[in-house]
Amino acid sequence: MEKIEIIQKVLEKNKIKELNPVQKKALSLGLLDGENLIVASPTSSGKTILAELAGLNVVLNRKLKMIYLAPLVALAREKYEEFKQKYETLGIKVTISVGNFDSQDPFLEKFDWICLSNEKMDSLIRHKAPWIREIGLIVADEVHILNDFQRGPTLEILVTLLKNVCKKAQFLLLSATIKNAEVFGEWIGARVLKSSFRPTPLYFGIFLDNKIKMYGKTDYILTKELKPEEAIVENTLLMKKQIIFFLASRKNAEALAQRLSNFVFHFLTNEEIKELQKVAKKIKNVLSTPTEQCKKLATCVEKGVAFYHSGLLFEQRVLIEEAYKKGLIKVITSTTALSFGVNLPNFRAVVRDVKRYYPGFGSIFIPVLEVRQMFGRSGRPKYDSWGEGILIAKNYTELKELEEYYIKGELEEIESQITNESALRMHILSLISNEFFETEKDLLEFFKETFLGKTIKEITQIKDNIEKALFQLQKWEFIELENTKEEDNFKFVPTTLGKRISQLYIDPLTAYFFIEALKNLKEWNFIAFLSLLSKAIELKPLPNVSAKDISTIEETILQNEESFLLPIPDFFDEEYEEFLKEVKMALIFKSWIEEKSQKEIMETFNIAPGELHSRLEISDWLLYSIVEIGKIISIEENLLKEIKKLRVRMQYGIKEDLLDLIKLEGIGRVRARILFDAGIKSIKDLRKTSPESLSKILHSKTLAQKIRQQLNLN
DNA sequence: CTGCTCGACGTCTAGACAGCATGTC
DNA sequence: CTAGACGTCGAGCAG
User: Which of A158, A296, A589, A692 is the most exposed place for a label (fewest CB within 10 A)?
Assistant: First the structure.
């Protein structure tokens, strides 16, 4: 297909008349001629269209695949839906594969456009997916995530690796506005397109006293008597707009939401109040017994305000997003949870807390990049003719400071985080396991090809870290040094264990803990085992231990002293504090599998529902990994069975006696307990129960019918 | 005596990726 | 080594 036809198709599918300046520039830089490109421009500057243009080109003209990589599952999903809806009619086969989604890997072979999370692609490489050779275009979105301490290294290694593996592939890196885009260009041999183009302009402002000083626009004068947040909200609502506040902690977000809700309330119409009450009810009843947090959120939502952070349950997040998009919820107070993730259209964003606590550093200014990112989503092309990002100053000195740093200041450079110890040992194990590299020299060569390699002068700077990782991996027996025939030539080979751990995608240190502990595992003890589980790096940071927890925890430690699977740190040791947290987490898990309600767990341990949920999800994967490791180091069969049983109990939050009933579709922790209490204790008992009494117990005919169908009783 | 405000003091601190095999209330 | 907002609780004060 001719270039002009491709462009026309894309314009048509996006219902636009012509390309914007960024897109035109990308074409002139050779987007459709297979040129590698790094595009650094603001959110909503139409970068997705670039992926579509190049994607059509590569599929139609070169008969190769496009992979679209995103740092977030939600983002990958969003693009998948978008691509599918637009291009499936053209015969392009679009799919997605992220984590627990339904596509199987060999199955991806048949698809043209594949949306993936960075980590999923990384894992596919580890599993040596054969279709990787068919990739003609690699689109990596939000590549500024390279700067992220925890998740940046994955992307960096991934891109470096893809560069080696997919020699014939075109690279298209998409990023927010960044200072050192040129280095990216140098890194992958790409042309650089930097632009500040936005379809709707974004204005910055700083609040002080009763005024919002705007830059490039007339100032706003606000009501004097009100507190800053209230004054800004009033001004926004009078303009019939919505607003998002960004705060440093969950607590702050919740506190502000509560305060503002009593203010926003007065601006609502009767119609809105009615609708909001419906939403609030849904939010409150996500769990069978609402926790305090659920109630708090519902009360705020009734009054047109919502707080938003990772402690919320997934359904609640979705409900808030929907209600905000409909214009029902007027104000959201959020942690950074919202600055990534879904695209929530918005008019005005206020970053109230520009300082944040970093352990070991205290409270420090957050990066300019991050503030701009939070501002970035403001100004919806279809609804607003501009967007606003606002900071709050307490006095004139602070105003000047904020202005200097965030408004006029330059963005930070993106820095490689690849030297991160945990990331390094994980990726080095992976590289060796896949036999990409055999010697330390090879490995160092590879690291020269990374983004880091392009930014530092001497690779020796990270040589120590690499050597340390290699040393640890050897010590833990995940890799071995093998002497080849030729003299002076040693190569690293993975052990069976090492290979499996790399595939399981867990931190080698976690795996090491597990292995050492499994060796000591003789008798089954829940607290001991669950404390071990909580030692996993993947579950960190763990919820804090508060004063009221201490006595329970210490009692637990005392009672199980003999049973712990790894040495208990000395009381005066630094690690002791961490150990307390691990035991606390174990106690939380134990409450869960003893069928305590989420409300009760939250009240006893002060842990948000969403937090428990995400820990359980990770634990499921860790428990699977423990079983897999256990198989390799051949631990006793009955212990393996206990772990498997625990995994199911953790999944559903049930006591052991419900393990049988839970196997049925439509039966969870609550219904299984209802049946059990009614005297139906097993599937065998179920067979003997009449359909009438079954439907009576479960208060549902259809459910009883569904269960009987599964037992072939009809 | 009650109810309110103010301030000292103690407490607490963001986010969310992956394996694998099937389905909650 | 570093901060700062929130919540609780008690003191002080007005009515």
Answer: A692
Q: Is the CB of A355 under 7 A from strand C?
A: yes
- Cα dihedral sign for A541, A546, A552, A556? positive
A359 touches strand C (CB under 7 A): no
Report, in ranges, which bases of strand C sit under 7 Å from a protein C-beta: 2-7
Neighbours of A586 (CB within 10 A): 23
Determine the distance from the C-alpha atom of residue A145 to the mean position of all C-alpha atoms in its chain, rounded to a whole number: 12
Please give the single-letter amino acid code of residue A99. Answer: G
Whole-angstrom Cα distance, residue A258 to residue A683? 48
Give the per-residue pLDDT at A486.
67
C-alpha distances in Å from residue A512, one per residue of A30, A466, A472: 49, 18, 10
Distance from residue A230's CA to nucleotide C5's C1', rounded to whole Å: 17
- Contact assessment for residue A146 and residue A152, using Cβ atoms and an 8 Å cutoff: yes
Query: pLDDT digits over A16-33, tens only?
Result: 999 999 999 999 999 999
A484: exposed, middle or buried (C-beta count within 10 Å: 0-12, 13-18, 19+)?
exposed
The reply to whether A357 has its C-beta less than 7 Å from any atom of strand B is yes
- State the sign of the Cα–Cα–Cα–Cα dihedral A66, A69, A72, A73: positive
Burial of A94 (0-12, 13-18, 19+ CB in 10 A): buried
Considering only CA atoms, which residue is closest to the C1' of nucleotide B21? Answer: A100
Query: What one-character DSSP code corresponds to residue A486?
Result: S
Residues 365-394 of A with CB under 7 A from strand B: 370
- On whether the CB atoms of residues A181 and A27 are closer than 8 A, the answer is no
Residue A402 contacts strand C, CB under 7 A: no
Q: Tell me the nt nearest to A362, Cα to C1'.
A: C2
Residue A334 pairs in a beta bridge with A246, A308
For tokens 């069978």, name the residue: A288
With beta carbons less than 8 A apart as the criterion, state whether A380 and A419 touch. Answer: no
pLDDT (0 to 100) of residue A18: 94
Name the nt closest to A628 by C-alpha to C1': B19
The pLDDT tens digits of the residues spanning A538-584 come to 999 898 888 888 888 989 999 999 999 999 998 888 888 899 999 99
The structure tokens listed for A247 are: 């705060």
Mark the nucleotides of strand B covered by protein, meaning any atom under 7 Å from a CB.
10-25
Residue A503 gets the label, from left (phi > 0), alpha (psi -120 to 50) or beta, of alpha
Name the closest residue (CA) to the C1' of nucleotide B19: A504
pLDDT of residue A44: 83
Residues A458 and A61: their CA atoms lie apart, in Å, by 42
Is the predicted pLDDT of residue A689 greater than 90, yes or no?
Answer: no
Evaluate if the CB of A547 falls below 7 Å from strand B.
yes
**How far does the CA of A150 sit from the C1' of C14, in Å?**
56
| Confidence at residue A100, expressed as pLDDT on a 0 to 100 scale | 65
**DSSP for A67-105?**
EEEESSHHHHHHHHHHHHHHHGGGT--EEEE-TTSS--T
Tell me, what's the pLDDT at A162?
Answer: 94
A479-483 and A490-494 as β-strands: parallel, antiparallel, unpaired? antiparallel
* Nearest nt (C1') from A251 Cα: C6
Backbone angles phi, psi at A613, to 5 degrees: -60, -45
pLDDT, tens digit, for every residue of A327-343?
Answer: 999 999 999 988 877 77
Nearest to A352 by CA among A333, A326, A370: A333
Decide if pLDDT at A498 tops 80. yes
> In the Cβ-directed half-sphere of A437, how many Cα atoms lie within 13 Å?
18
